[in-house]
Design a protein that fits this description.
With about 450 residues, the chain is mainly α. The protein contains 16 helices and nine strands. Strand 8 and strand 9 form a beta hairpin. It is globular. It binds (alpha-D-glucopyranosyloxy)acetic acid.
Length: about 450
């Protein structure tokens, strides 16, 4: 089907409506991920939300990141959820029981696991916006970068040490939720070895928000997710203790690539603004190590990066968008060109059955592809944004612009859904999802 590009009126409406969604989801100093399904602050959502808000207000965007940092643990970890008010969201703080962890922050309830480190990438976009505006915005943002430099470095250092104790150059995740791609087929093999033990009784809340449960992870998957939470609690959220006993330990290529890219940007911003030279050097070293680690996982037969199951030593070869991790971290020009062609070609965005030529979470040509199920095939606008950003950064402006334009065409209905059925274009999951509205604003800026 031919793409209809948004008209100037569509674009004006989209910008207005995206701004409205972010305003409606604004709770003062943080933004809920979505109005009903996700009524708290999620870590990587906050990064995307901040860069979207920055197109309208740099100070408010910085507030978003400042609030996120109030949840940082003494280990440097930025937790995946900050709970600011009671709600019926599950798993809630009673399930996470982070009071068992010495490193938890004072004064704010959080979960006890991570999400992908997109934040410094967002911060560098915000700095770019702030500099374009100049004046007070620029001054405020540059000061913010300098003041928070140690906290971002501590976050990256946590991932580079506690989550890569043997310096392999791959960030280890302890739960599929830490990848941000909960039920991705990337995790099917390691989850197949997770045998859920006893967990306190629970009622899933997510199913109350969707008409068709097959669009969400299954109950069997959910039992494993909660069992891993239980294992983290039993380890008192100590990473070494979990590593010794936990069932799910996987080197995640996309998290590693984001860490490498974010560390490069942190070093660049630090150098420009006069941050501590030792911190800048440390950041560059983290970037180098994880870039090398990601490139080492590339399957020569497919040109895609592969996660590594650290329990079995097996690479996990799945046609998921995370395979494009090298595009995100860079490092090998010939490979990046092949990845660009692959991404835009008939196995991915150029697949003949796609309604919109934007990045699907799993290749429609893969046997693992399921068009309506969460991270098993649907298109997530933030993933498309990330790949457009990565292409831009590697000098592929034309390819990046193709994803941007198709991504905007997909969002022209202004529902800002959580994810989209790739063959029909139908909106799935939550509506008025903050990060979807945010990337629309960034694409329009
Ligand atoms: C959950 C908030 C989160 C995202 C995750 C996505 C989903 C469900 O929603 O998680 O209950 O945490 O998988 O990446 O951050 O938008």
């Amino acid at each position: 089907m031919a793409i209809q590009h948004p008209t100037p009126v569509d674009i004006a409406l989209m910008a207005g409506r995206a701004g409205y969604v972010l305003k409606a989801n604004d709770r003062g100093r943080f933004t809920v991920a979505s109005p009903t399904l996700y009524p708290h602050m999620w870590s990587w959502d906050a990064g995307f939300v901040a860069l979207g808000i920055a197109t309208v207000s740099v100070p408010r965007a910085l507030d978003e990141l400042r609030t996120l940092l109030t949840g940082q643990w003494a280990t440097g970890m930025i937790p995946h959820i900050l709970f600011h008010s009671p709600s019926d969201y599950f798993p809630d703080p009673d399930r996470w029981r982070t009071q068992v962890a010495a490193a938890r922050p004072a004064g704010v309830l959080t979960s006890g696991i991570t999400q992908p480190p997109i934040h410094v990438i967002a911060l560098s976009r915000i700095l770019h916006d702030a500099r374009r505006r100049g004046g007070g915005d620029q001054e405020l943002c540059e000061r913010f970068v300098l003041d928070t430099f140690p906290q971002w470095l501590a976050w990256h250092r946590y991932l580079a040490t506690a989550r890569d104790p043997h310096a392999h150059g791959l960030v280890e995740i302890h739960h599929g939720w830490e990848s941000g791609m909960d039920d991705s087929p990337r995790w099917d093999a390691p989850y197949s070895r997770v045998v859920p033990g006893p967990v306190p009784p629970f009622v899933r809340r997510d199913l109350a928000h969707v008409s068709d449960p097959s669009q969400r992870p299954s109950d069997a998957e959910y039992a494993r997710y909660l069992w891993l939470v239980e294992q983290k609690v039993r380890a008192r959220y100590d990473d070494a203790a979990y590593r010794a006993t936990g069932d799910f330990v996987v080197g995640d290529v996309l998290v590693s690539a984001l860490l490498a890219a974010a560390s490069d940007l942190l070093a660049d911003m630090g150098a420009e603004l006069g941050a501590d030279p030792a911190g800048i050097e440390e950041s560059r070293a983290i970037a180098r190590r994880f870039r090398t680690g990601v490139l080492r996982t590339v399957d020569p037969a497919t040109d895609l990066a592969r996660d590594l199951d650290l329990r079995t030593g097996d690479f996990l070869a799945v046609d998921s968008a995370a395979g494009f991790a090298p595009l995100v971290c860079g490092g090998d020009d010939a490979l990046l060109r092949r990845q660009r062609d692959l991404l835009l070609g008939p196995r991915w965005c150029g697949h003949s059955r796609l309604r919109w030529p934007v990045v699907p979470s799993v290749s429609p040509a893969s046997p693992a592809f399921r068009e309506r199920t969460y991270w098993r095939g649907p298109q997530w606008p933030v993933l498309n944004w990330l790949m457009a950003w990565a292409l831009n950064r590697s000098g592929e402006q034309e390819a990046a612009n193709a994803l941007r334009l198709a991504g905007l065409a997909q969002l022209v209905d202004c529902d800002f859904a959580e994810y989209y059925e790739p063959l029909t274009g139908e909106q799935l999951g939550s509506r008025d999802q903050s990060w979807t509205a945010a990337i629309a604003l960034d694409f329009l800026a």
